[in-house]
Amino acid sequence: MVLVTLNDVLPRARRYHYAIGAFNTSNLEITQAIIEAAEDLNAPVIIAISEKAIKYAGIENLSQIIINLAKKLKIPVVLHLDHGSSFDIAQECIKYNFTSVMIDASRLPYNENLKLTKQVVKYAHKRNVSVEAEIGRLAGIEDDIKVKKGEAIYTDPKQAKFFAQESECDALAIAIGTSHGAYKFKAKPELRIDILQEIAHEVKIPLVLHGASGVKKKWVNQVNQFGGRLGHAQGVPDNLLIAAIKNGISKINVDTDLRIAFTGGVREYLVKNRKDWPGTFGCGDLQSPVL
Ligand SMILES: [Zn+2]
Known about the structure:
Blueprint: H1 6-15, E1 20-24, H2 28-41, E2 45-50, H3 51-57, H4 59-70, E3 77-84, H5 87-95, E4 100-103, H6 110-126, E5 130-135, E6 140-142, E7 145-147, H7 157-167, E8 171-174, H8 193-202, E9 207-209, H9 217-225, H10 238-246, E10 249-254, H11 256-272
Parallel strand pairs: 1-2, 1-10, 2-3, 3-4, 4-5, 5-8, 8-9, 9-10
Antiparallel strand pairs: 6-7
The chain binds zinc ion (ZN).
């Protein structure tokens, strides 16, 4: 199947109160895992690439990996830029066949955010590429952008309505209490479902929840058991995610969970197979040497 845009999968999700998962990748292995899981579940999937992932793996390499894997599938796949910070990066991604881009100018004053978002929307829509924008600020770390807890701002529903209408973006990321990274809540996890309800009432386009990893104990324990130190990592519990989806969220962004699972799997394998160097890492036919 050819790649699709957010507009092919999210409006239906919004209408029928379910959400599509957006999962970050920066390499072949995580991409394979995302695609295998989506295929098993027969579910559409959004594969998200951040600017840091592009710096690490190269835009053409990542784009080609995803396009090659996706074209053999029956499920719809969106190739999406996550937290694009400039017009140039959005343009570059579109050049390399991304079908969707996020422009995150939420660090800028409202008017500048709107101006840059409009510019990207105009360019992207001419090329049949969808655009996600962001209003409000999440705490935590996303690539090189660090936002302290006190600087995080909940999305204002009326402002969100105006922003969505003016910018003509296809999906809007909002801030209702999640944060990026593995340490989302110091105390009891809470989301401002009341604010979400107001936003969903005002904004009719699909809404996006960033920082939505569950940070499940099972995976954190695996990392720690095999030499990692994840401390008091805490994510968004399933019941809060379900409440968010019921109240208007149609795209759920997950990055941290994949990194934790990947790290845990690699750590466990290496500890349990100390003599096995090629092992499952691509050279399965080679004899493992006895060290
Ligand atoms: Zn994010």
